[in-house]
Write a structure and sequence with these properties.
single chain, 379 residues, alpha+beta, two-stranded antiparallel sheet, 49% helix
Length: 379
């Protein structure tokens, strides 16, 4: 057991070192990614060359064999360099590919260059049922990483015999894996933050997907928060790093001393640090619990699922609060284009709006705590 733990630590440390080796490339191309609303090709190539897109891929297929609950610190480390870079790394892991039939998963991920992008919003997508599979047509929204993906994951409302299919009052939703060669990217990503993620819309028409390359939407939504929340944590740490550097050189207007000597700045930095540490503690505690359940091969209860969701949501929301404190403490400098704090502020506030991390998830947590049904597919 001790030997296995030592081997794991060695492999994990190796992946942190890989992030460190790619970090200068991410930094050098962050402005290009921001301007062009997509990850720079040089950064994507560096991730592929370093094997960083394959942390969830089994060792037998050349990956690290980690679980989604183990790789948070690696994603956080990349997001500490740049928020969009961290998001690109997180959503390039192909976690949704794990939900297809095992034989097909091995076929897909035997390609060392494979990357996946996806949209789990079914509103503008229809999955028409036919023998052996579904034909997907429509538009997937906010497809992070689509500009370098080889496969597209899309959720669609199931249509049978010309009409949407319902179970009770709920529409049936199916998720399919489509080749990007049969999809078209629409240049629609125009947000204030996370601009370098390339989260454009993707359209497709009458693309046949066999049954074995489809799965339920609820399964797809379960684990995304564990990959995305560390991005917010890394962004908040970047903002704190940038503030500490700024505070040692900036003399605020109307002052004769450095920003670091201002009591309000010291206080807000302390609050930001405490807020971030609280966010990290809860998030990684819930990750450890999820990993323990995985090893026990035990399905989580609804209260356990909402606690896991709460860990992810609080990570994102508290990270945004920490950056707000830093933004205020830094003064007008924080609003200057080109200031790291300015980009962190934009990035963290866009990241916190993702459906798996947004404040709307608190309603589900509250309902489960009150003994009520979740009333949502996202727990």
């Amino acid at each position: 057991m001790a030997a296995e733990a030592a081997q794991y630590e060695s492999v994990f440390h190796d992946y942190l070192q890989r992030v460190a080796s790619v970090a200068p490339i991410a930094t050098a191309h962050a402005d290009w990614s921001e301007r062009n609303s997509r990850p720079a090709p040089e950064y994507v190539d560096a991730l592929r060359d370093a094997g960083l897109f394959r942390m969830l891929t089994p060792v037998s297929l050349g990956g690290a064999g980690f679980s989604p609950w183990e790789i948070g610190p690696v994603i956080e480390a990349m997001a500490r360099v740049d928020g969009s870079a961290g998001w690109t790394l997180a959503l390039g892991q192909g976690i949704l590919g794990q939900l297809v039939k095992p034989a097909l998963y091995e076929t897909l991920f035997s390609d060392p260059q494979l990357t996946m992008a996806g949209s789990l919003n079914p509103v503008r997508v229809r999955a028409h049922r036919e023998d052996g599979g579904y034909r997907f047509s429509g538009t997937g929204s906010y497809v992070s990483g689509c500009t370098h993906a080889s496969w597209m994951v899309a959720a669609g409302l199931v249509v049978e015999n010309g009409a949407p299919k319902f179970v009770g009052d709920a529409p049936v939703i199916r998720v399919g894996v489509l080749p990007m060669s049969e999809c078209q990217i629409q240049e629609t990503w125009n947000m204030t933050g996370m601009r370098g993620t390339g989260s454009h819309d993707v359209t497709f028409e009458d693309v046949f997907v066999p049954d074995d390359l489809t799965f339920d939407q609820a399964d797809a939504l379960a684990n995304l928060g564990g990959l995305l929340a560390p991005v917010s944590l890394g962004i908040a740490r970047h903002a704190i790093d940038a503030f500490i550097e700024l505070a040692t050189v900036k003399v605020p207007t109307g002052s004769r001393s450095l920003l670091r000597d201002r009591v309000s700045a010291q206080t807000q930095l302390g609050q930001a640090e405490g807020t971030l540490q609280a966010a990290r503690s809860l998030f990684y505690e819930t990750c450890a619990e999820a990993e323990a359940r995985r090893l026990e091969e035990r399905t989580p209860t609804d209260p356990e699922r909402v606690r896991l969701r709460l860990g992810s949501v609080m990570a994102a929301q508290l990270s945004a609060q920490a950056v707000d404190l830093i933004y205020d403490a830094a003064g007008l400098t924080a609003g200057s284009v080109g200031c790291a704090i300015e980009r962190c502020w934009r990035d963290v506030h866009v990241a916190r709006q993702h459906i798996t991390l947004a404040t709307t998830r608190f309603e589900v947590v509250g309902r489960i705590c009150l003994g009520m049904p979740a009333n949502s597919p996202i727990i």
